């Protein structure tokens, strides 16, 4: 087709590459940023800490909502009766005791939603 055989090779390669790209094929050269390259490399500790912090925040929020709805006296009596139980009940009482975060959430709800 062309006088120079190198041009024939070049254009045949270009047409093969265009056909491959039309089909969705591609390549990534080593050291380049492509579709598969991740821009963030978080540490293992951070990837583990995020769900734990989220679970802790949800737990404190749930305890605060329960403290708000049942009232402080009822909440404390239920936790103390749970502490007097056997088996895993004392562990549940330790988890459900009214910590400062729970009391803060309860007071914020009391300010926003007065009864």
Would you kindly provide a brief summary of this structure?
The protein has helices at 5-22, 44-70, 72-83, 89-96, 100-112. The protein is mainly alpha-helical and 115 residues long.
Describe the protein.
This protein is mainly α and 115 residues long. It has five helices and no strands. Helix 3 runs antiparallel to helix 4 (89-96). The mean pLDDT is 87.
N-to-C order of helices and strands: HHHHH
Q: How many strands, which pairing sense, and closed or not: the largest β-sheet?
A: none
Number of helices: 5
What overall form do the CA principal axes indicate? rod-shaped
Strands, total number: 0
- The assigned structural class equals mainly alpha
In angstroms, what separates the terminal alpha carbons?
88 Å
Strand content: under 5%
Compute the CA-based radius of gyration.
Answer: 32 Å
Helical proportion, percent range = 55-70%
> Uncertain regions: pLDDT < 50 for 5+ in a row?
none
Instruction: Provide the residue-averaged pLDDT.
Output: 87
